[in-house]
Design a protein that fits this description.
This protein is an alpha/beta fold. It is built from 19 helices and 14 strands.
């Protein structure tokens, strides 16, 4: 049988952080407020935590954090008269939790000031972050796999939180190129316990083949995604039945379709790691009767629709949550396709070292930027997207792991450029964001372009391929 999680990492901080966080929670039975980011990774994190605390008999209040700014978190902390469990956010505001009068456990994989050396915190605050153990929070462990692991430390029965750990990792794009590091270790253990099952199939989801291709966003297929007539012509040329379910293609049909789709991705200039996602091994989760990618999409869509609680309710087996999540997923997919078609048709704006565009679909802008970066845009320059919210601009910045390997660090770029215009920013080197005054877009872009140009100067000069 699989081994316990206490030996996954040899770095002493690993076990000491989890032990402190576990003991703090177990020493304070009762009602805990779980604060989580409203994206797919955050919702999956909350799903695992709510299930684990309910298993302990604890009362739970789950609160999504939509505005990722210090004042929003400060307001929640002030309004909470009891213990807090904070997931997928909070690492940048540890001082807020230190001043809270009740126990606080923070589970986050983002960079924090001074990382990987956390500040001294009072005994009523426990902070768990994989960066402290030399684990990359950008590619080897996300918030949901961190929370899944934490719940296993609470009680080994929580290995059955595997669906939510896996779905959150997919939402955070950590499945790209195969799972690595602690993600891979957790997945291996979950498979040994028959909680997940590996399978190989094309990454196309839908009841009919034509719909699956026309509605495909990951991969986004230039000239096919969002274009039903073109899809029918394409399938006719391959002698494939457009109404046949994708999972019922025979071996020859699947090979014919796979080759044709891969050829299109190569022709549209997609980097190899994103082409591979079309045929990369997938994972089914028997407990919920679907592919982990589908589960991830449902939870992510619920959050972007402004109802992250539906994603959590889905994990708790709520009878109506699945139907409502499917409705949100259909709208979510349509919104993303709308944005990607707009980029495909009209292109984006360019600076020396970056690309940028505006999106009216505020909650979908980051997803649009990430998928456009992978499938439509110049892969040598990161992309920034702006969405207006009153007197503020929300900024999402997306690169690729390949660009990070060339020196890109969007977390630093967003933080420095936002500071320059009296805003706030941060995140991961590959994916970051900021909130800035609405009037400061051009000044932000000037500063961001300068920083990016300095980071990837060799690439821009043609020194890397």
């Amino acid at each position: 049988m699989a081994s316990g999680p206490e030996r996954f990492v040899s770095q002493p901080t690993y076990s000491s952080e989890f032990t402190r966080a576990r003991e703090l929670l177990l020493a304070h039975p009762g009602r805990w407020r779980i604060v989580y980011h409203y994206d797919g990774d955050g919702i999956a994190s909350a799903s695992a935590l709510v299930r684990a605390l309910r298993r302990l008999g604890y009362g739970v209040q789950a609160t999504p954090l939509v505005g990722v700014e210090r004042p929003t978190m400060a307001k929640i902390v002030t309004a909470t008269d009891g213990p807090l469990l904070v997931a997928d956010t909070g690492a940048s505001w540890l001082d807020l939790f230190a001043a809270h009068a009740h126990p606080v456990v923070i589970l986050d994989h983002h960079r924090y000031p001074g990382s990987p050396v956390p500040p001294d915190l009072p005994r009523h605050v426990a902070f768990v972050n994989p960066l402290d153990w030399g684990v990359d929070g950008m590619s080897e462990m996300c918030a949901s796999t961190l929370c899944w692991l934490y719940t296993i430390f609470l009680d080994p029965r929580n290995w059955d939180n595997a669906p939510w750990g896996l779905s959150g990792a997919i939402a955070d794009r950590q499945h790209q190129g195969g799972y690595r590091g602690l993600n891979a270790r957790l997945l291996e253990e979950a498979a040994a316990r028959s909680l997940v099952q590996r399978h190989r199939r094309l990454a196309l989801f839908g009841e009919r083949l034509a719909d699956a291709i026309e509605r495909s966003i990951d991969p986004f297929l230039r000239g096919l995604s969002g274009r039903p007539e073109e899809v029918r012509t394409f399938l006719a040329g391959l002698h494939l039945d457009p109404v046949k379910p994708p999972d019922q293609l025979d071996r020859a049909e699947e090979q014919r379709l796979s080759s044709a789709l891969l050829n299109r991705l190569v022709q549209q200039g997609v980097r190899p790691e994103f082409c591979e996602l079309l045929t990369q091994d997938g994972w089914s989760v028997p407990a919920v009767g679907m592919d982990a990618q589908e589960l991830s999409n449902l939870q992510n869509a619920a959050g972007r629709a402004g109802e992250p609680s539906i994603g959590v309710a889905l994990a708790l087996g709520d009878a109506g949550a699945l139907e409502r999540a499917r409705t949100h997923e259909a709208s979510w997919r349509t919104g993303i396709l709308t944005g990607l078609r707009r980029i495909e048709d009209a292109g984006v704006n360019s600076r020396t070292a970056l690309q940028w565009f505006e999106s009216p679909e505020t909650t979908l802008a980051g997803t649009q930027a990430g998928l456009a970066m992978n499938y439509l845009l110049d892969p040598r320059r990161p992309v920034f997207v702006f969405s207006r919210e009153g007197d503020l601009l929300k900024v999402s910045a997306r690169g690729t792991l390949w660009l990070v390997g060339q020196g890109l660090d969007l977390a630093t770029v967003c933080r420095e450029a936002a500071d320059h215009v009296h805003g706030e920013g941060g995140g991961h080197p590959v994916a970051s964001g900021a909130t800035i005054p609405a009037s400061a877009r051009d000044a932000f872009l000037d500063e961001a372009d300068r920083h990016v140009a300095g980071q990837i100067a060799a690439l821009l000069a043609g020194g890397a391929r």
